[in-house]
Amino acid sequence: MKTVLKSAFAALLLAGLAGAAHAGDIAVENPWSRAAPTGAPVGAGYVTLKNIGAAADKLVSATADVAGKVEIHEMAMDNGVMKMRPVHGLEIPAGKSVELKPGGYHIMFMQLKKPLVAGEKVKGTLTFEKAGAVPVEYTIKAMSAGASSMPGHKGH
Ligand SMILES: [Cu+2]
Question: What is the dihedral of CA 90, 133, 21, 59, to 10 degrees?
């Protein structure tokens, strides 16, 4: 009897912890960044945003402790050249995931205040129209991480 009560309590505790991993209906999964040397002006953050709710939400802004300015960018082909441009709001459809990854959408860390060192973390927030500000911690990976999947991505 005692054991049953204990495991019921543990289940409740686990449910509570799982709930803390996301704010509102947006789950922030696998945030990562890539190492950038001293003097690099910019870096990029990647993350999978999963909308577990019944209504669409929108990523509208972001912050990062290493950057003076943060923008949401997308990579797109323009006359055969891969270019990136700021997007004003990235829609996360209900029940869907949107993956920010090299060669696609990314969080652009601008005016870098310090180098991005592999193994360290970038702390910041992602702000959604409905879910509000969600804390995020990007794990910085070695500079070569994901490089092969983003030919022509210049300036990062
Ligand atoms: Cu960019």
Answer: 0
The overall pTM is greater than 0.90: no
Q: What secondary structure letter does DSSP report for 149?
A: G
Helix (H, G, I), strand (E, B) or coil at 65: coil
85 CA distance to ligand 1 middle (Å): 7
- pLDDT at residue 155 is higher than 80: no
Is 122 in contact with 64 (CB distance < 8 Å)? yes
Domains of the chain by start residue, with CATH: 23-146 (2.60.40.1890)
Q: Are residues 124 and 136 in contact, defined by beta-carbon separation less than 8 angstroms?
A: yes
What residue spans of the chain are helical by DSSP H? Answer: 2-19
Question: Ligand 1 centroid vs 114 CA: distance in angstroms?
Answer: 18
